[in-house]
C-alpha cells in the first residue's frame, strides 16, 4: 500500500474496483499474515468445510464440549443475553440491509420422544 494507511473499504475500491456493500462489517485476517484483512462479505466457506480437532487448541475443544453440554434452559438464557447485547431485534436496519429478518420471540415447539415398541413374550418359570 505504499506505506500509507487506508481503510479496507478504500483499499478494495482503489486496488480491486470493488465497492463494499457493508463497509462497517467485521473483517477476517489470515492466521500467518495477521495484517491482511478481508471483508467478510467477499468470503465464502467451502461446502462441507470443517475444522478438525488437530486445527483446534485444547482450550477450543474444551470450550466446544462445555458449550454443547449446557442445559437447555441455561443455553436459552445465554442466547437471550447475547441477542440483547448484540441488539438483534425485529426492524434492525443493519440486519435488514444484509437480508436478515428476526422474529420477536424464540420459536417454540413441542418435544416428542418416539419410543420403539418392544415385541417379545413372557416365559414363565416351569421348574415348580
From TrEMBL:
The lineage of its organism: Eukaryota, Metazoa, Ecdysozoa, Nematoda, Chromadorea. This is PAZ domain-containing protein. GO terms for molecular function: RNA binding. It comes from the Eukaryota. Pfam families: PAZ. SUPFAM superfamilies: PAZ domain. CDD domains: PAZ_argonaute_like. Residues 2-64 form the PAZ domain. It comes from Ancylostoma duodenale. Transmembrane segments: none annotated.
Amino acid at each position: 500500500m505504499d506505506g500509507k494507511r487506508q481503510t479496507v473499504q478504500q483499499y478494495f475500491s482503489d486496488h480491486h474496483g470493488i465497492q463494499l456493500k457493508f463497509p462497517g462489517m467485521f473483517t477476517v485476517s489470515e492466521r500467518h499474515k495477521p495484517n491482511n484483512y478481508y471483508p467478510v462479505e467477499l468470503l465464502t466457506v467451502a461446502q462441507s468445510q470443517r475444522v478438525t480437532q488437530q486445527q483446534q487448541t485444547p482450550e477450543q475443544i474444551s470450550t466446544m464440549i462445555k458449550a454443547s453440554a449446557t442445559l437447555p434452559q441455561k443455553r436459552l438464557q445465554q442466547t437471550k443475553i447475547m441477542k440483547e447485547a448484540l441488539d438483534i431485534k425485529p426492524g434492525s436496519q443493519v440486519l435488514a440491509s444484509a437480508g436478515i429478518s428476526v422474529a420477536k420471540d424464540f420459536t417454540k415447539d413441542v418435544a416428542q420422544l418416539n419410543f420403539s415398541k418392544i415385541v417379545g413374550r413372557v416365559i414363565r418359570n416351569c421348574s415348580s
